[in-house]
Amino acid sequence: MQSEELVRLRIEEVLATPAIGRLVERYFDPEGPFAGATFDLLGQNPPHALTLDDLLATSLLDITWRPLAVRRLLAADSDISARLAAIPGDVDLWNAPRDVLETATFLHSSLSKLPGIGPVIASKLLARKRPRLVPIHDRVVLRVLAPPKNKFWETLAAALRAHALREGIEALRPAHGGSASLLRLLDVAIWTRHSRSRAAQAARAKAGVSEPTS
Predict the structure, then answer these.
(1) How far apart are CA 118 and CA 133, in angstroms?
(2) How far apart are CA 107 and CA 80, in angstroms?
(3) Exposed/middle/buried for residue 139 (C-beta within 10 Å: 0-12, 13-18, 19+)
(4) What CA–CA distance (Å, rounded) separates 179 from 154?
(5) What is the pLDDT of residues 27-76, one digit of tens each?
(6) What ranges do the domains of the chain cover?
(7) In 145-173, which positions are buried (b, 16+ CB within 10 angstroms) versus exposed (e)?
(8) C-alpha of 9 from chain center
(9) Helical segments of 28-138, H only
(10) DSSP per residue over 9-50, as a string?
């Protein structure tokens, strides 16, 4: 079985979780303990510039910014802006041309190499700037989907070309999740279902979702 088929099946398992919709809804509850829509809507988010609001929004996703990382990001602002300008904001991951994916991948790699950042924080930054194109990939998502090494974006893009799968993800959208991209909905569903954090465990208990077996 090809890797994209395995990823698709793992996503379908998450979507088939009883009460998964209620769990996603709890994440986007504006009175709840999670980032919800605030990650997308906080402050200013100009498409071709990295701002302090972006850093603050990313900090809502369990990120602690080290002073050196902030200084290096601000120092690289002109280079980051130029690369962001080369990445369209209206392209979905599953429809992205190869050159767009390559440009985004290069920027992700460049950000990852800055002190105190790494690939996870870089993905969260770029998901804020290009939410339809760049998926967040933390250890929970990678553990659950288990894509081939260094091929997460490519494999997920192939899996999401299945229209029925995208419809299943979109069906999870709660009333307060109107600003979230489909990739963000998927990330939230996987994280809330499988994270071992106390907050996720509490959310599962309140939503009536059983604990994962793995």
Answers:
(1) 19
(2) 8
(3) exposed
(4) 24
(5) 999 998 898 889 999 999 999 999 999 999 999 999 999 999 999 898 88
(6) 3-207
(7) bebeeeebbbbbbbbbebeebbebbeebb
(8) 19
(9) 38-41, 52-59, 67-75, 77-85, 98-112, 118-129
(10) HHHHHHHTSTTHHHHHHHHT-TTSSS-TTHHHHSS---TT--
